[in-house]
Design goal:
CATH superfamily of the domain at 35-129: Ribosomal protein L17
Shape: globular
Distance between the termini: 73 Å
């Protein structure tokens, strides 16, 4: 029987666990696909589905709850504007977990968690900034 087992602790204190889930949620919303360990992905999946459901409801109270859970206005705006519209006809199951083998160092089981109808270009969000910065540095003459 599984009575009174509310959640996975992931061998962390409650504050560390909350921060871990919040950071992983923000990364998942930003990049729409992340690689992590399988137990962390299993904990993250229901949290991500609840965040999308909050974004779909769209009233002021749910927006405030969304911002307080994510603590990032950019992520909250993306959930409300992009992801909620993308999943408006879907009743649930916004994320999927794909097993991805084992990590080299400690043989931990890896998994990829992603949105079902994800935007492939979302993974390149930071690459554009890095490439632009790199191009600016190349254009500047070296001071001797």
């Amino acid at each position: 029987m599984r009575h009174r087992f509310g959640y996975k602790k992931l061998n962390r204190t409650s504050e560390h666990r909350k921060a871990l889930i919040k950071n992983m949620l923000n990364s998942l919303i930003k990049y729409e696909q992340i690689t992590t360990t399988l137990p962390k992905a299993k904990v993250l999946k229901p949290q991500a589905d609840k965040i999308i459901t909050l974004g779909k409801k769209g009233n002021l109270q749910n927006t405030k709850i969304l911002v307080s859970k994510l603590q990032d206005i950019k992520s909250a705006n993306k959930v409300k504007k992009n992801l909620a519209k993308r999943f408006e006809t879907r009743k649930g199951g916004y994320t999927r977990i794909i097993k991805a083998g084992f990590r080299y160092g400690d043989n931990a089981p890896l998994a990829i968690i992603e949105f079902v109808d994800r935007d492939v270009e979302a993974k390149r969000v930071d690459r554009k900034k890095k490439e632009a910065k790199k191009n600016q540095e190349e254009k500047k003459p070296a001071s001797a």
